[in-house]
Amino acid sequence: MTLLQIEDLNVRHGLLHAVRDVTLKIDAGETIALVGANGGGKSTLLRAIAGAGPPPDGRIFLDGDDVTSTEAYGRVKLGISLVPEGRRLFPSLTVEENLMVADDRREGPWNMATVLEAFPILAEVRGRKAGNLSGGEQQATAIGRGLMSNPRVLLLDEVSLGLAPKVVDMLYASLQQVIQTGTTIVLVEQELDRAMSTASRVVCMLEGLVVLEGESRSLARDQVTDAFFSLPSQSGAGR
What we know:
This protein is an alpha/beta fold. Helices cover 33% and strands 27% of the residues.
């Protein structure tokens, strides 16, 4: 059953046409990987879904309801949660306090206890200020904060960016537990092998356009990397 539907979405930043005519359907419980070279429009698409960017042209539906005009805080209450690139934590607050910021008591499996269980690294630093955490600890806190609202759709932007491979392994092991709860995930990931092994479907974007889409198991790695560069350069590409 389709949970998130995007129809003819266009996002512009002034003269910059960052997302171009994107149409996608994402089923409940599905994990989608958005991949592509830098400047493809992936992060802009996530922000548009979350209501965090400039008003888009086109429409966004959650479980059949049009949420295109719904403010970002309203989308959180409806079940859309964005974990942005750069984590955006409150550095002077502890891990536990950062998690509690997002706790609006939506019904669901996620609360302080279950987040700490899924991300054991956080149980060890729950009383430490976020500004004093390692990159991996900060990323785990950011994902945990996103889960605390019990989202129906979790948008993850660049989980592995700037992190050591062992830390990325740890984070993705925790994410497998999230996937098993049936949470729908849209994941922007720079590591293609990681994206293809985690997601059920891969969507490749280039210069704001969707240039390849398919089930991970049916796509060869070379097909996806070729799609990264499948169009001639155009003006107005966007991140």
